[in-house]
Design a protein that fits this description.
Length: 84
């Protein structure tokens, strides 16, 4: 079995209104040390072992469904886990 952790972030060139709003609120809440903030997504997928290449399968999932590649970047980590 595989555990896949996918981290999705907006591209630097894309405006992040949620991040801007959160940053303004943090500064208002006495956290002046916050210089920037961007909000992304974390996706966790558990996959059964397969004959397919796991990395290719995850790339396909991200490109075709999980990530808007026009405005988002992503990276992922694959961990093989032993069923207990």
């Amino acid at each position: 079995m595989y555990k896949v952790k996918i981290f999705v972030t907006l591209r630097e060139s894309v405006i992040d209104p949620a991040g801007d709003a959160a940053m303004k609120e943090l500064k208002r809440s006495e956290f002046p040390e916050v210089e920037s903030l961007r909000i992304g997504k974390y996706i966790e997928v558990t996959m059964a072992k397969t004959d397919k290449n796991v990395e290719e399968a995850v790339q396909d999932m991200c490109r075709n469904l999980l990530v808007n590649t026009e405005v988002e970047d992503y990276r992922f980590e694959i961990e093989e886990v032993v069923a207990e």
